[in-house]
């Protein structure tokens, strides 16, 4: 085996878990978690079922890895952005909401909300995992920015957690719309314009009139 071939094999082996997760997300979304099988994931990824078992023990294990690999990674990027105290809270909230909106336009990310809602009744652990690892962390970050904005005199006295939910809900709507209703829409849903309008409207809604 030449060095070049060996290097290609190592790169392929290192990339395989990510390829399996991409295949799993497609299978879960198309078939539903209950009907999906590890054989389906293997077939979609172009590998044997035994290869899947080299990395994952069960469908639940695959889903947990999916959450860590895609939405949880995005949440950590949001938290890292929000950690800069030098940026005023109103500008920071604008940047964070735009970043969340960008993530929710990703073809992989938009599949998670519908998948979770559809499977929550029969597989509550999936919803619990997503809420704990993604929603709770995201809401916590938004709440802390809003609370800081209140202390800075930039935002009105609002409940930070309720305001965080209000800020996030329309962004999640874009994912639900694109994966559920867009196919029946006679006109194109302009996600970019919708998200930008929401961000500015929300910021005006909680702004203190005398904000510096």
Describe the structure.
By secondary structure, this protein is mainly alpha-helical. The chain has two domains: 3-57, Orthogonal Bundle (Arc Repressor Mutant, subunit A); 70-206, Tetracycline Repressor, domain 2 (Orthogonal Bundle), CATH 1.10.357. Helices cover 74% and strands 0% of the residues. The chain has helices at 3-31, 38-45, 49-55, 59-69, 71-82, 89-103, 111-119, 124-151, 160-181, 191-206. Helix 5 (71-82) packs antiparallel against helix 6 (89-103) and helix 6 runs antiparallel to helix 10.
Features:
single chain; 212 residues; mainly alpha; Arc Repressor Mutant, subunit A; Tetracycline Repressor, domain 2; 10 helices
Summarize the structure.
With 212 residues, the chain is mostly helical. It has helices at 3-31, 38-45, 49-55, 59-69, 71-82, 89-103, 111-119, 124-151, 160-181, 191-206. Helix content is 74%, strand content 0%.
Number of strands: 0
What helical percentage do the residues reach? over 70%
Q: Count of DSSP helices? A: 10
**Low-pLDDT segments:** 1-12
Outline the biggest β-sheet. Answer: none
CATH topological fold name of the largest domain: Tetracycline Repressor, domain 2
- The general outline is elongated
What does the radius of gyration come to?
20 Å
The CATH architecture of the largest domain can be named as Orthogonal Bundle
SSE diagram, text form:
Blueprint: H1 3-31, H2 38-45, H3 49-55, H4 59-69, H5 71-82, H6 89-103, H7 111-119, H8 124-151, H9 160-181, H10 191-206
């Amino acid at each position: 085996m030449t060095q070049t071939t060996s290097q290609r094999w190592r790169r392929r082996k290192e990339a395989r878990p990510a390829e399996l997760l991409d295949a799993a997300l497609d299978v879960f979304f198309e078939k539903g978690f209950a009907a999906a099988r590890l054989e389906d994931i293997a077939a979609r990824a172009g590998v044997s079922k035994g290869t899947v078992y080299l990395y994952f023990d069960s469908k639940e294990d695959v889903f947990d890895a999916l959450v860590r690999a895609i939405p949880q990674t995005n949440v950590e990027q949001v938290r890292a952005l929000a950690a800069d105290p030098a940026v005023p809270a109103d500008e920071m909230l604008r940047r964070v909401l735009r970043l969340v909106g960008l993530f929710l336009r990703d073809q992989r990310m938009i599949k998670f909300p519908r998948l979770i809602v559809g499977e929550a009744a029969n597989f509550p652990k999936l919803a619990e995992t997503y809420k704990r690892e993604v929603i709770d962390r995201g809401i916590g970050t938004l709440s802390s920015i809003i609370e800081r904005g209140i202390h800075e005199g930039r935002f009105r006295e609002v409940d930070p957690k309720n305001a965080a939910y209000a800020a996030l809900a329309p962004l999640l709507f874009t994912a639900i719309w694109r994966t559920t209703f867009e196919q029946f829409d006679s006109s194109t849903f302009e996600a970019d314009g919708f998200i930008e309008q929401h961000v500015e409207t929300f910021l005006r809604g909680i702004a203190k009139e005398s904000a510096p």
